[in-house]
C-alpha cells in the first residue's frame, strides 16, 4: 500500500528548532528499510498559487490551497502493508513534533489493488 505523508508546517514552531540531521537520518533509515519511496521539500507558501475554475472563469490566487495558518511543507511517499504501519512509522519522524504528518492512502488505479 502506498501512503502519501504530507508534512504540515506549523508557523507557531520555529523552523530553526528542527534537527535537520535527525530528519536526514530518519529519511536514510526509512529508505534503507524500503519504506520511503520519495521525499521532497516544497518551496515556501509565498511562492505558491491556487487555481480554481468557477462558472467558466479561471481564478488564480496567491498562497497555498488551504485556508489555514498551517501549510504543506513537503511530502513523503511510503510503501507499507497498511495504514496502521504508516502511523507507527510517522510517530518516529522528528517532524511530527514540529507540525503534523497527514497520512493519506493513494487510490488504486483501474480497480487494481
What does this structure look like?
The chain is α+β, with helices and mostly antiparallel strands and 113 residues long. The protein has a single domain, classed as Alpha-Beta Plaits (2-Layer Sandwich), CATH 3.30.70.1060. The protein is built from two helices and six strands. The protein has helices at 20-32, 83-91; strands at 2-9, 36-41, 49-54, 57-62, 71-79, 99-105. Strands 2-5-1-6 form a four-stranded antiparallel β-sheet. Strands 3-4 form a two-stranded antiparallel sheet. The protein is globular and about 45 Å long.
In short:
Helices cover 19% and strands 37% of the residues. It is α+β, with helices and mostly antiparallel strands and 113 residues long.
Adjacency order of strands in the biggest sheet: 2-5-1-6
Q: What share of the residues does DSSP label as strand, in percent? A: 35-45%
Please identify which CATH superfamily we are dealing with: Dimeric alpha+beta barrel
How many structural domains are formed by the residues?
1
Please give the radius of gyration in angstroms.
Answer: 16 Å
Which residues sit in consecutive blocks of at least 5 with pLDDT less than 50?
A: none
Provide the CATH architecture: 2-Layer Sandwich
Q: What is the CATH topology assignment?
A: Alpha-Beta Plaits
**Cα end-to-end separation:** 8 Å
Q: Note the main sheet.
A: 4 strands, antiparallel
Structural class: alpha+beta
Note the run of SSEs as H and E: EHEEEEHE
Q: What proportion of the residues is helical, as a percent range?
A: 10-25%
Which overall shape is indicated by the principal axes computed on the Cα atoms? globular
- The average pLDDT value, as a whole number, equals 85
Assigned CATH class: Alpha Beta
Family: Belongs to the YciI family.
Organism: Agromyces salentinus
Protein name: YciI family protein
Domain YCII-related: 1-106
Amino acid at each position: 500500500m502506498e501512503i502519501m505523508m504530507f508534512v504540515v508546517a506549523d508557523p507557531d514552531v520555529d523552523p530553526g528548532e528542527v534537527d535537520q540531521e535527525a530528519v536526514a537520518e530518519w529519511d536514510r533509515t526509512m529508505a534503507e528499510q524500503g519504506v520511503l519511496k520519495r521525499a521532497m521539500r516544497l518551496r515556501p507558501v509565498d511562492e505558491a498559487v491556487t487555481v480554481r475554475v468557477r462558472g467558466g472563469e479561471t481564478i488564480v490566487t496567491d498562497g497555498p490551497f488551504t485556508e489555514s495558518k498551517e501549510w504543506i511543507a513537503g511530502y513523503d511517499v511510503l510503501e507499507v502493508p497498511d495504514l496502521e504501519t504508516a502511523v507507527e512509522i510517522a510517530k518516529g519522524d522528528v517532524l511530527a513534533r514540529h507540525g503534523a504528518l497527514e497520512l493519506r492512502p493513494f487510490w488504486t488505479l483501474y480497480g487494481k489493488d
